[in-house]
C-alpha cells in the first residue's frame, strides 16, 4: 500500500504533527533529523507527533528512510512562557449528516455509540488538555439546532473539564424555535453574559464577543458592542485575545460563504482595537476553514470545525513578548476516519478549501 496524502499538518518550536490518509500496513518509521516515531499502521488514516526538534530549523521528513517532505519549525515568541489556552469551534452537537447537495452519513456506529460530532469534540478537548491548555474558549455553534437536549450534551461535556471554560453563541445556537443558550449553559454551571465579558490569564485577557444574531446566518457587532470590546481590550493588563463566532469581512458584502460581519462594522472594530492595544489577536469560527490575515497590528484568524475536514482545534502559547498559534488535527482513529471522509464534500473542493496553508494555521507573532 503506498503512502497517501502525507502532510506535516502542524508545527511548533520543537515538534511537528504528521498526518496521513494511508500508510503501508505494519511498522513504519517517520523521522525528521535524528528524531523519529514508529507507527504501527493498519493502513487507515492517522497521525503522530515527532518531538525533540530544534526551534526555527528546516527538516526533511522521511518515511522508512525515504525523503518525503520538507518543513521548518517555528521560532518561539520573545520572553518566557506565561500561559497556554485553547479554542474549539463549530462542534455542531446533534448533526447527523455533512455536506452540500449530497450529504454523507456514518455507515455504521462506533463501539462507544457516540455520533461523530460528539466524539470529535471530546477528542479535541482531551488533546487540548494534554497539550497543556489552562482554559478553553468555545467560539460558538455548540449545537446543530439549539435544542434543549443538544445543549445538555454539550454542556455536560464542557462542565466536566478541569479548567475554566468560556462559551459564546453561534448562529446555530440561536434558532428561533430553540432553547435559550444562556439558561441551558447556566443549568450545568457555565455562566455566559449577554454583553461582552472577559477572563484574565497571565499575559493575556480573553475577551468574549457576541456576533451571532437569532435566526440569521451573518453576524453583527454594533456600535455599543464595538465600544465594549474596545474598552475591554484597552483596559487589558497585557495582550488581548478577542473571540467571536463570525469572522470580520474585508468588504461590505461577503466574498466567501458563509457571510460574516460586514466590513462596514468590521473595519471600525479592527481599527479601534488596534488603536486601543498594540497586542490584539482576534479569532473566529463559523467558516469551518483555517485562515490568517492582518489588519494594521491586529492578527485575525479563522479556525476550522472539530467535526469535519480537517477536524481541528487551536492552541495558544502566550509569552512575555508574543503569542504562538498552532492548529492541530484530531487524530483519534474513529475521528480522523470520519473527517478524512468528509474531505470529499462538494466533489472534493472542501478538502482543498478548508485546511488553508500551514503558515496560516501555525505561526508566531511578536508584540
Question: How would you briefly describe this protein structure?
Answer:
By secondary structure, the chain is an alpha/beta fold. It has 8 helices and 19 strands. The chain folds into 2 domains: 7-72, Immunoglobulin-like (Sandwich), CATH 2.60.40; 81-366, Purple Acid Phosphatase, chain A, domain 2 (4-Layer Sandwich).
Please identify the structural class as seen in this structure: alpha/beta
- Helical content class: 10-25%
Give, in spatial order, the strands making up the sheet with the most strands.
10-9-8-17-18-19
The residue ranges in which pLDDT falls below 50 over 5 or more consecutive positions are: none
The separation of the N and C termini measures 47 Å
Beta content comes to: 25-35%
- Rg over C-alpha atoms, rounded to the nearest angstrom: 20 Å
CATH superfamily of the largest domain: Metallo-dependent phosphatases
Name the helix and strand elements from N-terminus to C-terminus, one letter apiece: EEEEEEEEHEHEHEEHEHEEEEEHHHE
Q: Describe the global form.
A: globular
Helix tally? 8
Q: Report the mean per-residue pLDDT as an integer.
A: 95
How many DSSP-defined strands? 19
Biggest sheet statistics = 6 strands, mixed
| CATH architecture descriptor of the largest domain | 4-Layer Sandwich
CATH class of the largest domain: Alpha Beta
**CATH fold topology of the largest domain:** Purple Acid Phosphatase, chain A, domain 2
